[in-house]
Write a structure and sequence with these properties.
Elements (H helix, E strand, L loop, with lengths): L7 H6 L7 E13 L3 E7 L7 E6 L3 H8 L6 E10 L7 E12 L15 H6 L8 H23 L3 E2 L5 E2 L11 E2 L26 E3 L4 H11 L1 E9 L12 E10 L3 H22 L1 H10 L4 H10 L3 E4 H9 L17 H11 L4 E7 L15 E9 L3 E8 L4 H10 L8 H8 L5 E7 H9 L20
Parallel strand pairs: 3-5, 6-10, 12-13
Antiparallel strand pairs: 1-2, 1-4, 2-3, 4-5, 7-9, 8-9, 10-11, 11-16, 13-14, 14-15, 15-16
The chain binds one RNA strand through strand 1, strand 2, helix 3, strand 11 and strand 15.
RNA sequence: UCCUUGAUAGCUCAGCUGGUUAGAGCACAUGACUGUUAAUCAUGGGGUCCCUGGUUCGAGCCCAGGUCGAGGAGCCA
């Protein structure tokens, strides 16, 4: 039976089906009409467009059946695909037979024909995929995930699966979630009262990963070019439109790449992904452009067709100091740029994506390649309008001694990280990489304003529902 | 975590200077209508005014504490 179903997307584009009997299945968006004829807008998620079912309800039986169908119900419909008599759609189905798979009591079904606020939809995240907006976002999200794999595969990268559970707590990218099977009511203790993790599942303290980068580097030191694409966890008490406790990250790592190669790859990748969306998610993007953000499509085009502005942190600081604008936080060489500073550079000064490199070493991670000036490291941040930092990366320090010294300065335990240091001890190589926040990419591509609305089931402080 | 702001019908919101029985639109129910596009029209049902305490003759409204949401900041992707 399933094989006979025609997806609504195909029904709406395949002219050759006109005049033929087809079966469509999906969820009712609206039902309306009069005593003699009812109209059902049906959606099966294959496309944002609904197909209109025309149901003759002149006879008692059909009228009975239709009275059970309401917004949210799931039905199967057999009928002839015909040219529509009405305006608003070119094809419709003259229904001959309808089967109800599941009704949706209109008194309690939360989704209405009317628009809902995004805040309300977050509270019913189990049902929001059935809305136009989330259907569009989820389809785009899929296409972007696929495009990422395609981009790297076409370039000869290998997909490396970094572990989700990590035994290292020295990655230095934020607070971690603990992973344990210990009984909280009876925690084994050492003599000094500290927790005895030798009794735990792995025989040591473990956490959820905050980054796949270090493992990615291990892969790059053998396969030359690899990438990871997986979930990442940060136990920060962040309550913003740009942070999640569980998010997905793409981390390419490439041997023999310097910072310029790294910037080239980041820019090429972002442009590829955005182009891919423009080509493959047209209807969904047009919907989002119409409903939420009238400049979305223009902005996507602009990013694809213009080169990113590249400059050093030092140059950026100079621009900000000469901006003739009051900032809430002062601009000072050596301190990290605030959101308002990044905004100014991207949205006011250059009016295009910006890549900043060569940051002061004291505000960046231990593994970044140290420049000869002794003050800066070869870090790279890609800043996007409205999003801020969409990519953070760097050329890595490949010199064993320099890396080890920096780790000591930053109080990172060398013994625990022996495996990472081994890459520099045995056949070290210059290499670079970066991390792309998947949800931040989706934010930019969809024009949505809150990161909780571009992932199916967001995890944020005090929220792990569904 | 800090700052700002909000919570009234299923949803979105109004509610005056503290004063009778808390309203509207949509949704829902019933009916009308021969092709509708968030259909239209008529009628109807629907409320723990977030919680706790206080002030007052009287609190949706004022005060205190709390809970939850949103926006901004920090941390970052």
């Amino acid at each position: 039976m399933q094989s006979k179903r025609t997806k609504i997307k195909e029904a709406l584009i395949n002219q050759e089906n006109v005049g033929k009997e087809i079966i469509v299945k999906g969820w009712v968006r609206t039902i309306r009409g009069s005593k003699f004829v009812n109209f059902i807008a049906l959606n099966d998620g294959s496309t944002i467009d609904n197909i209109q079912l025309v149901v003759d309800v002149a006879n008692e039986k059909a009228f009975e059946l239709c009275s059970k169908i309401s917004t949210g119900a799931c039905i199967s419909c057999t009928g002839i695909l015909v040219q529509s008599q009405g305006k608003g759609q070119s094809f419709e189905i003259q229904a001959s037979e309808i089967e109800i798979y599941g009704t949706a009591d209109p008194e309690i079904y939360p989704l209405q024909k009317k628009g809902h606020t995004l805040e309300f939809l977050r509270e019913i995240a189990h049902l929001r995929p059935r809305t136009n907006t989330f259907g569009a976002v989820l389809r785009i999200r899929h296409h972007m995930a696929f495009a990422i794999h395609k981009f790297f595969n076409d370039k000869g990268f290998f997909y490396l699966h970094a572990p989700i559970i990590t035994g290292s707590d020295a990655e230095g990218a934020g607070e971690m979630f603990k992973v344990t099977t210990l009984d909280f009511n009876n925690v084994p203790r050492n003599e000094d009262k500290t927790v005895n993790f030798k009794e735990d599942f792995f025989g040591k303290a473990t956490n959820l990963t905050v980054s796949g980068q270090l493992e990615s580097e291990l892969g790059a030191m053998a396969l030359s070019q690899v990438y990871t694409f997986g979930p990442t966890f940060r136990a920060e008490n962040s309550n913003t439109t740009r942070h999640l406790a569980e998010f997905w990250m793409i981390e390419p790592e490439i041997a023999f790449f310097d910072i310029d190669d790294n910037m080239d790859l980041a820019e090429e990748m972002l442009k590829y992904l955005i182009s891919y969306a423009i080509e493959n998610c047209k209807e969904d993007l047009e919907f989002l452009n119409k409903m939420y953000d009238n400049e979305l499509l223009a902005r996507l085009d602009f990013v694809v067709n213009n080169s990113f502005q590249r400059l050093t942190y030092t140059e950026g600081v100079e621009i900000l100091k000469n901006a003739g604008q009051k900032f809430e936080y002062p601009v000072d060489w050596g301190t990290d740029l605030q959101s308002e500073h990044e905004r100014y550079l991207v949205e006011k000064h250059f009016k295009k994506p910006v890549i900043l490199i060569n940051y002061p070493k004291q505000i960046k991670a231990f593994y970044m390649k140290q420049n000869e000036d002794g003050k800066t490291v070869r870090a790279m941040d890609v800043l996007f309008p409205g999003i801020g930092e969409i990519i953070g990366g760097s050329q890595r320090e490949e010199d064993y001694d320099k890396l080890a010294n920096r780790m000591k300065e930053m109080h990172i335990p060398l013994e625990e990280m022996y495996w990472y240091l081994d890459t520099r001890k045995f056949g070290t190589a210059p290499h670079s990489g970066f991390g792309l926040g998947f949800e931040r990419l989706i934010l930019f591509v969809t024009g949505m304003g809150n990161i909780r609305d571009v992932i199916p089931f967001p995890r944020t402080p005090m929220n792990a529902e569904f």
